[in-house]
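Dear all,

This email documents one entry for the complex benchmark we are building for the journal club exercise. For each entry we list the sequence lines for every component of the assembly. Then comes the predicted three-dimensional structure of the complex as a token string, followed by one or two observations. Please use this as the template for your own entries, and keep the labels exactly as they appear.
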Amino acid sequence: MSCRIVTIHTRHIRYLLIMMLAVSALAVITAAACASDRSEGAATLRVFAASSLTDVLTEVSEVFEAENEGVQIEMHFAGSSRLRAQLDEGAVADAFISADPRHIDAIAHLLVDSSITTVATNEMVVALSDSGRPIQSLEDLAKPGVKIVIALQDVPAGRYAHALIADMAQQQGFPAEFDDAVLGNIVSEETNVRAVLAKVQLGEADAGFVYQSDIRDTGLHSLIIPDQNPGDIAYVGALLRDSSHHDTAQAFLGFLVSEAGQRILISHGFLSAEAFSINAGVAMAATP
Amino acid sequence: MNRRTFPLGLPPGGIITLVYIAFIALPLIALFIRAISSYSLWDSLTSDITLTALRLSLITSLISMIIVVGAGIPIARYLSRRSGPFSRVIDVLIDVPLVLPPVVAGLAMLMAFGRMGILGDALDTAGIRLPFTTAAVILAQIFVSAPFFIRAAKLGFQAVPRELEEISQTLGISPWRTFWRIAVPLAWPSIVGGLALSWARAISEFGATIMFAGNLSGRTQTMPLAILSAMESDVGAALALAVILVAASLIVLFVLALAATRAAVPAGRLE
Amino acid sequence: MSARGWVRHRIGTFSLDVSWDVEPGSVTVLYGPSGAGKSLTLRAIAGLVHPDEGNIELDGAVVFDHEAGLWIPPHHRRVGLMPQEYGLFPHLTVAANIAYGVHNPDSQARATELTRTLDLQDLQNRRIWELSGGQRQRVALARALATQPRVLLLDEPFAALDSELRRAVRQEIRQVLTASRVPVILVTHDAEEALALADHVQIIDNGRIVAQGDPVTTLRQPAAPRIARLAGVENLLRMRVAGLQPEDGAMICETLDDSPLTLETPLAEAHEGDVVTIGIRSSDVILASSEPQGLSARNVFAGTVTTIEPRSPGHDVTVDCGGGLSLVSHVTRHAITQLGIREGAQMWAVVKASSCFLLSDE
């Protein structure tokens, strides 16, 4: 009888030991995975950036990595508002570059105030699909049956587009109710500007409101929207307070506004940060 | 020493099951807690965007399921009675949407039914434009969800002994009525189970929809699309939408589970 | 009401070529080994198989005529088919099973009557899996007869029952069948069953009818070794005719290897010196543990038990009598214990001359 109890006891212990071993092994593996994620080499920067910056920042980060040995940059592209929401929910990053100063304002408490910098500006255009019914002018956007794709009003590209449509309706030469007609022609509100471009490229939509920088390499025709305030569309970067690589991150932002950085941005169809600095009003908005 | 004793009275499989349940349940519980503690939950629940998306989701998934079941039962029945290399190829083809990433499915549908697609001109001549319409939402849902139903129903029909249907015919019942009086009741649990899986897949469909149908409130913005769109502005609204989607799914799955347990024949009794 | 017809049908290398003619209220047994084409014949009559050629007539109505291009589908044939495992519908109660094909007041009345006759009243609300094998069989029979079929087709109706129950229900079923005045075609591979139920036996082998006639002649003393083997005649002895005794109606046969053993059989058309095949059913061979005295039986052989193999409802005991003569005897388990039958034991095998029958060679 006593022998039986002892046997069960040892079994018990062995069993628990195995379970504990398994659990701790799992924990170690997970921790190792996380660690390697963050601190391999001298510095791995994680940069959250608006999706319209995808091509240009990929190039910039390659140049920056080449110039700064040991630095690795991990780019994470998405709609600015989604990035902002993710940071708000505790996502870990070193720098955030938004396509809209509002999103910088919204999470100002997470950012290093002094680091907030405008890195580029942009303008909106109407991208036209190759297949689409002939759209010759902005007025044609109001024609019945035209399929227009736009970004969600909550993402910068959507907000700018909506504002521009409203502006145009006020201008002379545009038909009455121009804005209602255009809004009525919207067939889809995409969650980011790249998806808008894709729908136009696929030929499913006739026209889409995108950034000038977006259509640079696509070969798509576009309509220029006149009378945009230079600097209305500003890309603003900032450091995260919780970043463990402040210096490197600061250097990266610095590189973006340097002559070399600006040259790359301009070559991708962006406008320089200086084009914006003339317009001080919005700069104030970016630094509360 | 035939009986083994385990801590908590559970064998290793039991412990791992517990851990797994916690892994699944914890995020859902967290979702509900966050949503309930959000002061604007009620406003979000009753907002236009939410109700519009919920209505669209329910209507489109209902229509999808009617089509999936209507077409899926004859297909499943046909496949359950075939064997040989040809039908094995068909089996694999039917399962393809299961392994396809939904975004790819959406893109593929654009390539076929879009304006620039293979059938684009033909559809255009017929006055049919699918992309960015509610019909496109339904097509995307059918595309991704039908395999779940067809698979399950096929297995259900295969398990019905052919002899029973033959006997029914010798008793003077036509093949058509035999199908409804013998095959369908006996395959019922599989049919309902397949419907539940299929519906769950349709209501949660996202990737193919946003590709093929776009995202426009009231026309193509279903619940999952509304959740992602809300994430761009207001996490609270996204949470409310998510809670509604989870609750609606649980209700439907529960009702279907009830329907399945009211099976004609208990498991294992169908020899 | 009668059922008659013929069919030819080919599936791969197997070809079926059978005919039948069954009187109302009589039972024709299709007897043969598995794979002989018995069930296929039933399926052809029921319309579940479309034969290559043939003509099937039920109660005067033609349901299949190859030449006329006539083929009535199963649900318009009014046949009652009862398969081996009964094919009861598991999602329905007993009552719903019986009433499944009922569609007019007449057959409704018939269903009620059958429920009573087959003693199923108390089981009406049961589900099929709650029934015993015998009860299932009765439900299946009631269901088949309730639709007032023009022919009743029973495929191995007792195979799913254990042997005790089989004997018990056989008589009951026989009565129901006779009372129903329906022509019955019953398929079995059990000779005992065929003898107990058949008015007429057709032996099928490899798709052909090799013998037919009344059950006793056809099965008890089959006319050819091949049929005998089919019909379960366990002892088939090759012997030479040594002498004819017309005055006694007897014939003496000796073994082929010239041992002194001889076997006395009824006189048959044979000549001295002919090599013949003699059949003896194992149930006709008696075993004794000591040398029997004062017997009327003509053939008594001493021998050694070589094998004992169970075969329901008893055992087959093989006794080697020397001289190339081995006899198989079917005895009960009880007899085995009482006589102390075991391998190697000394035994005497006793065979009445009249139990031996000469088989014509094919």
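Observations: Chain B touches chain C through 23 residues (CB under 8 Å). DSSP finds twelve helices and no strands in chain B.
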